[in-house]
Design goal:
Shape: globular
CATH class: Mainly Beta
Structural class: alpha+beta
Largest sheet: 5 strands, mixed
Distance between the termini: 71 Å
CATH topology: Immunoglobulin-like
Strand order of the largest sheet: 4-5-1-9-10
């Protein structure tokens, strides 16, 4: 029996939608060869144990210099977020989320979550814990990100180094690990 036209159209539409969703991603492959001189690695951690969902994605916006595509997506593995291929500039973390949840980073001034990249390197923006703030029965709950000491920069770098698919990133990460182990 041959499929009817309606089921062929539905299947074609589903395949096109899946292809469109996968091609829209702006993720650079995990720590592959740098795309330009001066690329840096930016990373941190969010503990979402008290949140409704684990963190699955993190976004950062390039504030200066102004560019046509200012948003940068991060890889996320068990709360650790990281991104290589980050050029010089001033940045601000904007949102993170998972499943059907989107969270805006708390408003901040110039702090760890606003990295300034002036030289190629490894930039740790900190480890944080999601903390729910109850506003009462009939109001939406809020949250805060509380700075934590664990996992440390060293612990996170040891997790990230396995994703270094290029000698540039591996050498950069291993150099920072050696500095922290002294």
């Amino acid at each position: 029996m041959f499929p009817n036209r309606k089921s062929i159209r539905l299947l074609s539409f589903a395949l096109l939608a899946a292809l469109a969703l996968t091609s829209c991603s702006t993720y650079t492959p995990v720590l592959e060869k740098p795309t330009q001189a001066g690329d840096s690695l930016v990373f941190g951690y969010i503990d979402m144990d008290d949140a409704p969902t684990p963190v699955k994605w993190v976004n950062m916006k390039r504030m200066r210099p102004v560019v046509a595509t200012p948003y940068y997506n991060f890889w996320v593995v068990d709360g650790t977020f990281f991104r290589g291929h980050t050029p010089y500039g001033s940045y601000k973390f904007t949102q993170f989320g998972g499943s059907n949840y989107t969270y805006s980073f708390p408003e901040q001034g110039k702090g760890e979550l606003d990295p300034q990249i002036n030289t190629p390197g490894v930039y740790y923006v900190g480890s944080y814990k999601y903390k729910k703030i109850s506003k009462g029965l009939f109001r939406d709950d809020e949250f805060d990100l509380v700075k934590t000491d664990s996992p440390s920069e060293l612990e996170l770098l040891k997790k990230i180094v396995v994703y270094a698919q290029d000698d540039y990133w591996k050498a950069m990460i291993e150099k920072r690990i050696r500095e922290l182990e002294k």
